[in-house]
């Protein structure tokens, strides 16, 4: 039975959402490249406003790492900036330690649409390793995490368009 579940379980995942923000690409990207700013728009900070956080390095630069320990909704982990292409994209590695160990690659991609508009794509992808891959047969990550990405992007839009 376990062998059948392991064979039929999803091996990879990728979830992303997009939104259009009525601000120029340089302004949007300059805000997004700072991980500490995620506290103002990410839905996970709302899920545990008292989570402990630690920061290592210079925010907005490759190598900057944000660590957190929170309640069961946010768990424990860290996010490290791995690449920045100015006014294009920022890549990070997400390392989760609790409630289960996993590593994902996350991204924020911006696209200049002209007319003072920027499309923002936020997402992450990775590999489902055994035995956690079996759990993915019963957990709809697209629906669950996708909902959080939609909420976060809506918060980001409201925040940046108020400026």
Automatic annotation (TrEMBL):
Domain of life: Bacteria
SUPFAM superfamilies membership: Bet v1-like
UniProt xrefs under InterPro entries: START-like_dom_sf (IPR023393)
Entry protein name: Polyketide cyclase
Source species taxonomy: Bacteria, Pseudomonadati, Bacteroidota, Flavobacteriia, Flavobacteriales
């Amino acid at each position: 039975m376990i062998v059948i579940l392991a064979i039929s379980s999803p091996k990879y995942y990728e979830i992303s959402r997009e939104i259009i923000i009525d601000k120029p690409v340089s302004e949007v990207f300059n805000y997004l490249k700072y991980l500490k700013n995620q506290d103002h728009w990410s839905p996970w900070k709302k899920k545990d406003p008292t989570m402990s956080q630690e920061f290592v390095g210079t925010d907005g630069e490759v190598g900057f790492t944000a660590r957190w320990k929170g309640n069961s909704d946010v768990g424990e982990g860290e996010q490290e900036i791995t690449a920045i292409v100015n006014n294009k994209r920022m890549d990070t590695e997400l390392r989760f330690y609790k409630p289960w160990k996993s590593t994902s690659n996350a991204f924020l991609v911006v696209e200049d649409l002209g007319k003072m508009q920027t499309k923002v794509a936020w997402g992450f992808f990775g590999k489902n390793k055994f035995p956690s891959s079996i759990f993915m047969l019963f957990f709809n990550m697209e629906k669950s995490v996708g909902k959080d990405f939609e909420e976060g992007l809506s918060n980001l839009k409201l925040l940046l368009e108020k400026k």
